[in-house]
Amino acid sequence: MLVALCDDEAHENERLKVMIDSCAVKNNMDVRCEAFTSANELLSREKFDLYFLDYFMEEMNGVDLALKLAAKFGGAVTVCFLTNYENAAAEVINRRVYADGFLKKPVDELSLYEKLGSFYRESFRGRLLIRKGAQRETVYTKDILYLEARAKKTALHMFDGEREYNYLLSEFEKEFLGDAGFCRIHRSFSVNMRYVESFDAKSVTLKNGEVLPLKSKNFVSAYRDYIFTNK
Predict the structure, then answer these.
(1) Does 116 share its domain with 138?
(2) What whole-number distance in Å separates Cα of residue 112 and Cα of residue 109?
(3) What percent of the chain is predicted at pLDDT more than 90?
(4) Does one domain contain both 69 and 160?
(5) Residues 28, 75 contacting (CB under 8 angstroms)
(6) Domain co-membership, 115 together with 72
(7) Among residues 8, 74, 85, 189, which is most buried (max CB within 10 A)?
(8) Quick one: pLDDT at residue 77?
(9) pLDDT for res 97
């Protein structure tokens, strides 16, 4: 798992990196952490699996940085904010930023270890190994916007394009998705509820602006259950 840490206080940045590296070694986790004191430098890099972002930074605050990362990578980013600001969660919600967690500064070792371990375990739960000919490809559920049935194949619409596999949509859902937060909204479409922006009686709009037909009587209750479970 690739972890990015961004805090413009160099001393705190280095302290947290040492803690993350130590946690990975002690718990035998395959984690590589890179520390940044510049938000713009982090933005210039390729995608990381997890971002620890300081909430207040002079060059660019953590919320603005999270928004820019989401825009660059299509919204599929995992972000944990570092802050002692009591109203941080409310501001994050008001800015329509998807926060995966918060750590209170100054971050203590136990809290960091628990949070990193939780993200690490979650990364395995969301990782799919899908047959593609004689090979297997790795796909993360958080990178999938929705699935589309195409005859005897299933297309995965992702933030960086699409991939097609030799599975019926029903077969793919049964073998790979389980309780991963997807819902069949139409005989040809299954959506990742994490990326539902809005819906009405006839359609579902995703966070990237795509609109899909809605033909499921169970979607509203399924979406409500998902929101309450993942709030």
Answers:
(1) no
(2) 5
(3) 36
(4) no
(5) no
(6) yes
(7) 189
(8) 80
(9) 59
pLDDT of 17 higher than 90: yes
Specify whether 27 is located in the same domain as 119.
yes
- Confidence (pTM): 0.64
Same domain (yes/no): 154, 111: no
Average pLDDT over residues 167-177: 92
Output the average pLDDT for the chain: 85
Taking the C-alpha atoms of residue 182 and residue 190, their distance in angstroms, rounded to an integer, is 6
